[in-house]
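Something for you to look into today, if you have time. I want to see for myself how the chain folds. Leave the record below and I will have a look.
***
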Amino acid sequence: MDVLVIGAGIVGLAVARTLGARGHSVVVAEAEGAIGTGVSSRSSEVIHGGMYYPAGSLRARHCTQGRRMLYAFCRSHGVPHARPGKLIVATSENERAGLEGIAERGQANGVEGLAVLEGREARALEPNLSCVAALHSPETGIVDSHALMLALQGDIEDAGGAIAFHAPVGAIRRDEGGWRVEVCGEELAFDAVVNAAGLGAQAVALTVEPYPSERIPRQVLAKGSYFGCLGRPAFSRLIYPAPMEGGLGIHLTLDLAGRMRFGPDVEWVDAPDYVVDAGRAEVFAHAIRRYWPGLPDDVLTPDYAGIRPKLTGRGEPAADFLIDGPAEHGLPHLVHLFGIESPGLTSSLSLAEEVADRLVGAEA
């Protein structure tokens, strides 16, 4: 088939790569001038283990499977990555039950190597840590997300596919045997369309005729800011607090150079805003000192911010990924991806396989 993938973030690129590897002719339409300029360039670059998500959910399945696929892809393509592991910490006894619940979900999801540690055992691994217990996830890692996207782009192009930059998509309509898509003001014909537009996925879906607008879920935006940390790293593993509403809490991650970075927090916003408020450093410091009481004063520096395209808002249970394909909406060769936030990077290669399967799953 001739397939149009809308969006050149990590998930869109992974989908295009998988479709190209299956012999389809693929074009990726990207409104901006480079790959991964949206959600994909503003993540924590963590390869997640898969222990947070309810058993049987798309998040659980694709995170666990995608993690394994991603490590293999990074090895085979020379993408810089590391597997330092992480500790999810309980800083008080009333958080211990939540920690054990995460461990149980992880075991149900098939996450390898999980172990609940007492505080003294965790401090033997990380002497600067303060906690009463911790869950050790040795499979958690970090990756150079831009190098990952470049490797995906390379595979797309090696298979004969192409990425069109500065190519916003307009109206999309079904005609006999295929889809007519307005790209850069010109109407082009495709056999199939995948909407992987991230923050723009709902807006793209609204342009599709005759896709029912009532199927489009609302989008809720959660801003997450990150702060860098001056000085030498105090930890060798990622450190996560107990999860908070809307996210996993202000955690400590490391980049591939060993630099410490903290975030993201959660701010519910009405429109994308990537300015990091330096005044939030005090809130960050208070949260960080719960598990790292030795955080020095005045070492946090504003770094960057990202926006999560969530499907649920404040006070609501977290939604699963939403993949709407032909079997669900009845239109052939059309797949929409909604609410692909964390762990979207980790899940990307596994999600791509499911999208490719669903795209052809209801052929006439």
